[in-house]
Amino acid sequence: MYALFSDTNFVVLIAFALFVGLLAYVRVDKILFSALDGRAERIRHELEEARRLREEAQALLASFERKQSEVGEKSEAIIAQAEEDAKLAAEQAKVALAESLERRIRAAEDQIASAEKAAIKEVKDRAVTIAVAAAQDVIAERLSGDARASLVDASIEDVATKLH
User: Fold this and answer.
1) DSSP secondary-structure letter at 7?
2) Which of 42, 80, 113, 158 is spaced 20 to 30 A from 23 at the CA atom?
3) What distance in Å separates the CA atoms of residue 27 and residue 33, rounded to the nearest whole number?
């Protein structure tokens, strides 16, 4: 027997068998498998969590991209509306300016016509006054006292009939 124990291979075999038997007796396999199962379970949960987070991130990215495109469309619509409003305002300003110029031109023409009429009236009045004064001078030089009196009486009657 001593010869058996002197062989190192046999001693290592016996030690290994005792070690495996001890492991089987202590049920190390269940401990290792339960530890490995627990770790596998944690890894599976972490993978599921990572998958869920990835899906949420993709949904969030899609939402942001959708919002970005909506904002882009809205900004383009706002710019287009602003350009249209600016064109409309410019056209309205042109029309208002044209109307204002027309009113001013008409007012100036009316003032010119009024001043022209006033000048013509003043010239006529002045001409009448000069003609009357000249007629008085001519009549005073050429007519005698009785003829003057009868001419004044006739003029008064003529004015009276024209006024009534």
Assistant:
1) S
2) 42
3) 10
pLDDT at res. 86? 93
How high is the pLDDT of residue 110?
A: 92
Question: Tell me, what amino acid is at 2?
Answer: Y
Contacts of 113 (CB under 8 A, 6+ apart): none
Cα Rg, the chain, nearest whole Å: 63
Which two tokens mark 24? 């089987």
Mean pLDDT for each 10-residue chunk of the chain (164 residues)? 70 90 80 88 96 96 94 92 93 93 92 91 82 72 70 73 66
Return the structure tokens found at 91.
């056209």
CA distance 65 to 87: 33
Type of residue found at 80: A
